[in-house]
Amino acid sequence: MSVTEYEALPDVPDFIEDDSGSSAAASVFSLTDLNVYYAENRAVADVNLEVKEREITAFIGPSGCGKSTVLRCFNRMNDLIPIARVEGSVRYHGVDLYAPEVDPVAVRRRIGMVFQKPNPFPKSIFDNVAYGPRVGGMKGNMEDIVEKSLRRAGLWDEVKDRLDESALGMSGGQQQRLCIARAIAVNPDVLLMDEPCSALDPIATGRIEELMKEIQNDYTIVIVTHNMQQAARVSDRTAFFTAELDERGDRRGRLVEFDETSTIFSNPADERTEAYVTGRFG
To answer: How many domains does the chain have?
Structure first.
């Protein structure tokens, strides 16, 4: 990857100063009037929110409300869907991610993703973690890179004596942590997690949640989850989306409320949020 491609994505600042002069967490993502279309269907309408640095942000809401669609805008995964179209502004540290000069491959290197179902490569545990650094031409000792990534993912002690074994022989929870290790091996700035625990049992889910809190100081994390208790346990801020019908009867996602997680779950401003978090709808 060329220097020019990296220059399109800036270095990450630690803090910005607000108008009062006190330090405030920097905005990693700023969405302004975001609309996402699949062909002529507007799947997500008029989303405005900011994701803060080194925080865990949760997206919650019923099925079909656009949570994952918005998440995929952060690393341009929607580009891979031929009929998808993104309008509005998606800025990453102030850079327009959809500007013509921005390389989506460079975007995905900075902004890693962990999917709903663990998807290890049919390779050894070692080669799964080493794959990204090798493809990206990362410098350094590959054994050290793999060990560091597995340690960060809380997996090293469980697999250090079987690194040459197939990753497909691991448990589901181990496979998901391996996918997290694979994502962080290329030193991303952000981790996107799309329902990372939905296929896992409660014990494995708890370990993933602990891991998110452990690595929060190193990464900005955005998680999509149907599990409201999970959002309440792990996130700093929560965005609640809902689905509404447009004039043609198609489902359209809309952001209802975005605030600190404690506020969303204890004192939401919108009655639709309250109905959802209390289980009266959704």
So the answer is: 1
Q: What is the CATH number for 190? A: 3.40.50.300
* Assigned domain for 282 exists: no
**The dihedral sign for the CA sequence 94, 145, 204, 167:** positive
Q: Are 91 and 57 in contact (CB under 8 A)?
A: no
State which residues form the domain around 103. Answer: 3-277
d(CA 147, CA 14): 26
Tokens of 223: 């998680």
236 in any annotated domain? yes
Structure-token pair, residue 69? 């669609």
pLDDT band at 138 (very low <50, low <70, confident <90, very high): confident
Encoded tokens for 189:
């700035």
Residue 122: strand, helix, or coil:
coil
Q: Distance between CA 279 and CA 282 in Å, rounded?
A: 7
CA 216/CA 193 separation, integer angstroms: 13
How many angstroms separate the CA atoms of 56 and 173, rounded? 20
pLDDT of residue 139: 83
Q: Say if residues 12 and 187 touch (Cβ distance below 8 Å).
A: no
Residue 280's SS3 state is coil
Neighbours of 101 (CB within 10 A): 10
What the block records as the tokens of 221 is 């994390």
The structure's pTM equals 0.88
Q: How many alpha carbons lie under 13 Å from residue 109 in its C-beta half-sphere?
A: 21
B/e letters for 29-59, b = 16+ CB within 10 Å, e = fewer, are bbbeebebbbeeebbbbebebbbbbbbbbbb
